[in-house]
Amino acid sequence: MTNLKDAVVFITGASVGFGAACARRFARDGARLVITGRRRARLEALARELAVPVHVALFDVRDRGAVDSAIAALPPEFREVEVLLNNAGLSRGLEPFWEASIEDWEEMIDTNCKGLLYMTRALLPGMVARNRGHVINLGSVAANYPYRGGHVYCGTKAFVRLLSLALRADLAGTKIRVTDVEPGLVGGTEFSVVRFHGDVERARKVYENVEPLVAEDIADIVAWVATRPAHVNINAVEVMPVAQAPAGPTVTRG
């Protein structure tokens, strides 16, 4: 099993949801953490909660210059990143394609695709130079089971899945690992509130009469993937709650 004690784990979108849950889970393993996002108060509160060294970086993954500046400004003890968790992402809207907002499409593409590219391009050269590291991408079952109204979001997550495999091809012969973690329906995060532009009541209805996964379930999977023996690469993990099935109606809610 790979020991992450004192290893540097870099988490994007750590303010809430999967990112915050993963930060807490990696802290239990004794990792040093770089937590990033756009909400300073939430990140600083999380940092105070964790009993491990933490560096907080405030930036938007969609801003390539800000990404590069944040990486360049890492303190020496946080520069050798062992695990990059590309968690920052979002979905917007459920309108049919011909009625959907192009601005929503651009936000999803810029965050889910380009932001992930910027982060990975900034940190992967160091991993290659050290010949060790792990890139973990937060994808979605939407990559494999597209649903009505999900068109562009599903496309961005299919991009994450295929990019993860393409990175594995480029990294063949190195000791660097790449994994795509693909959750289904998860409750207790801001995902649906963001999708519906702050409509809390509409977001709440997504989870009526369904027991979804929770962020801690995903954090456990991410930690398991990261702590496999160094010669083991988990290409992808697809996980749904028991209440959800690929051919069932709840897939449209994920």
Structure description:
Helix content is 41%, strand content 17%. By secondary structure, it is an alpha/beta fold. It has a single domain, classed as Rossmann fold. Helix 1 (17-28) crosses helix 8 (215-226), helix 3 runs parallel beside helix 4 (102-130) and helix 4 (102-130) runs parallel beside helix 5 (151-170). The longest helix has 29 residues, at 102-130. The protein is globular and about 50 Å long. The model is unreliable at 249-254 (pLDDT under 50).
- The share of residues in helices is 40-55%
How big is the Rg?
Answer: 17 Å
Termini, distance in Å? Answer: 32 Å
The number of E-state strands comes to 9
Largest sheet features: 7 strands, parallel
How are the SSEs placed, and which strands pair?
Layout: E1 8-11, H1 17-28, E2 32-37, H2 40-49, E3 54-58, H3 64-72, E4 81-86, H4 102-130, E5 133-138, H5 151-170, E6 176-183, E7 186-187, H6 191-195, H7 200-205, E8 213-214, H8 215-226, E9 236-239
Parallel strand pairs: 1-2, 1-4, 2-3, 4-5, 5-6, 6-9, 7-8
Helix pairs in contact: 1-8, 3-4, 4-5
